[in-house]
Design brief:
By secondary structure, this protein is α+β, with helices and mostly antiparallel strands. Helices cover 40% and strands 19% of the residues. The chain contains eleven helices and nine strands. It has a seven-stranded mixed beta sheet, with helices on both faces. Strand 6 and strand 7 form a beta hairpin. Helix 1 packs parallel to helix 4. The longest helix has 37 residues. The mean pLDDT is 86.
């Protein structure tokens, strides 16, 4: 038995020494130490050994196992060290070579414009409120005094998911949610992404962004609306900016108006940018319709308010003198690096 163990151990050591890769070591380990290995077969034959010799033979088998395992581990470490050194040679870094500059990103024109608008209104005491992009028909239309037969609810204009659920066409729905909470007075703006079934061109996109504002309090008048928007225009486009209001119609405000600002390119003299008119249309606004207040649980005899809405992309196009809205979404770094 002793000679057999010595023969097994010598053979194992020789195979370990002659192995040239890690996979070979695993094969040797299974061959000698596995469930069907050489040493395991000796342990299974212990029943043929005299009882008084079994402890001694068992000790000899354990010693042989320990030596083989120890030699396997040493050889394994030698392989791993060689592989590590080889890898380090292949991955050597020449510190004298010039470094590779990683380009740094910066904020998108839309983001910069949104932050500027938000800071202006926060400075005037407004709160920034967000709401769901997937909205109920009631909040997007009916609560804003837009009845079921109104053209704006046509499927050619609106992305309907079901008869009662749609992708919001305006962030005015956020205003309704806030009015329903009953926490008065309200001074808020609601920026966010909106969706309309428009063809893509230089001034239209099925996805764009709006910033809508709402003030509800006692004794709010159209003068408050004009003063607020005039201050907003001056802070956004410069102190010399003038504004004018043209009568218009919106279902959820009465009276309603479109607001123009003097062309910040020519100062109102007339140029290609403003098509020679000296003015550019910037937003829609008006006094909140009494019926809209009533539907949200607010007494129009006690409270009044004004609302306004502006397209974020529209401001960005004017502010940065961009003549095609599609450029904002094409992710062309040659364009974006200019801002």
């Amino acid at each position: 038995m002793k000679d057999r163990l010595k023969q097994i151990m010598d053979e194992a050591m020789a195979q370990i020494d002659s192995s040239d890769k890690l996979d070979k070591l695993n094969e040797i380990k299974v061959s000698f130490l596995g469930k069907k290995g050489e040493l395991t077969s000796i342990l299974k034959s212990m029943k043929d050994v005299a009882p008084e010799d079994r402890p001694k033979v068992g000790q000899m088998v354990n010693d042989a196992r320990s030596k083989i395992e120890e030699h396997l581990e040493e050889k394994k470490k030698a392989f791993e060290q060689a592989l590590r050194e080889e890898k380090m040679k292949a991955e050597t870094i020449d510190v004298t070579l010039p470094g590779q500059r990683i380009p740094e990103g910066h904020r998108h024109p839309n983001t910069k414009t949104l932050e500027e608008v938000e800071n202006i209104f926060i400075g005037m005491g407004y709160e920034v409120v967000e709401g769901p992009e997937i909205e109920r028909d009631y909040y997007n239309f009916e609560a804003l005094n837009i009845p079921a037969d109104h053209p704006a609810k046509d499927e050619q204009d609106t992305f309907y998911i079901t008869q009662d659920i749609l992708l919001r066409t305006q962030t005015s729905s956020v205003q309704v949610h806030e009015m329903e909470k009953g926490r008065l007075p309200i001074r808020m703006i609601a920026p966010g992404r909106v969706f309309r079934s428009d063809e893509v061109d230089a001034t239209h996109s099925p996805t764009f962004h709006q910033i809508e504002g709402l003030v509800v309090d006692k004794n709010i008048t159209f003068s408050d609306l004009k003063g607020t928007l005039q201050e907003f225009a001056k802070r956004l486009f410069g102190e010399d900016t003038k504004v004018k209001f043209r009568p218009h119609h919106f279902q959820f405000t009465e009276p309603s108006a479109e607001m123009d600002v003097t062309c910040f390119k020519c100062g109102g003299k007339g140029c290609r940018f403003c098509k020679g008119e000296g003015w550019v249309e910037i937003l829609g606004c008006g006094m909140v319709h009494p019926h809209v207040l009533e539907m949200s649980g607010i007494d129009p005899e006690e409270y009044t308010g004004f609302a306004f809405g502006v397209g974020l992309e529209r401001i960005a196009l004017f502010k940065y003198e961009i003549d095609d809205m599609r450029l904002l979404y094409e992710n062309d770094t040659r364009f974006l690096k200019q801002f």
